[in-house]
Amino acid sequence: MGDRAIFITGGASGIGQAVAQLFAARGWRVGLADVNAAGLATTQAMLPEGMATTHLLDVRDRDQWVAALADFAEASGGRLDVLFNNAGIGTSGPFASADPAELERCIAVNFTGVVHGAHTAFPLLSATPGSVMLITSSAAGIYGTAGAAIYAATKFAVRGLAESLDGEWAPAGVQVRTLMPAFIDTPLLDQPSGGSNQVIRERVQRAGLEISPVGDVAEAAWQAVHGHVLHTRVGKTARKLWFAARWMPGALRKRAQRSRPERR
């Protein structure tokens, strides 16, 4: 059997970069995909020589998916043990006053991009025994977040896709998993928080919520790929939210109504 192989979208930074480092350190061949060429080169330089290939990929473009996966399959000898459908962007602020183009971009990257990846990668996954598609959802895919409606909606969407394909793909021997991290120490936290002059990181810290190291997500990804849990929650906030969504949904609803963003 050849080297196990993982293809990672959003591999230029953050969670994708950390997962690439961990899997490569454990002997996996890595395909790094992103729209950020400089970031791809940076990540590749962090990995053992000869263990990674880079692929410029806008996940919104199905044709680019087809080309990138074909190139990776050539390098991996046709193996795709794990598709890490990870690329995503954030958007926040009051929904009613949001820029429609920003909303459409978030949907296109966070959901349509995942759909394209799942659809185009299935032939390779189904041809690789024991393969897994891992999708980055979010704690926002556990219960909707006031002030991040479209972001939360996309994370619920990929959760639903995963649950559906986990059943549909089982006869083909393809497993499906998600990661549901809460607040992770990545560049996404340094984006402006909608309706505020603060960045997201500052608001999280003021709320007294934990920011988990990105390495925790990488280790959770490893466990998800090698375990049997459909949805892996990462961080205390995500685990508490999962519990509350099941047992105390009324309390979550009231808190969401109190925390709605200011109009701008």
UniProtKB/TrEMBL annotation:
The keyword Oxidoreductase applies. The keyword DNA-binding does not apply. It comes from the Bacteria. InterPro entries: KR_dom, NAD(P)-bd_dom_sf, SDR_fam. GO terms for molecular function: oxidoreductase activity. Residues 4-186 form the Ketoreductase domain. Keywords: Oxidoreductase. Pfam families: adh_short. PANTHER family: OXIDOREDUCTASE SADH-RELATED, RETINOL DEHYDROGENASE-RELATED. Belongs to the short-chain dehydrogenases/reductases (SDR) family. This is Short-chain dehydrogenase.
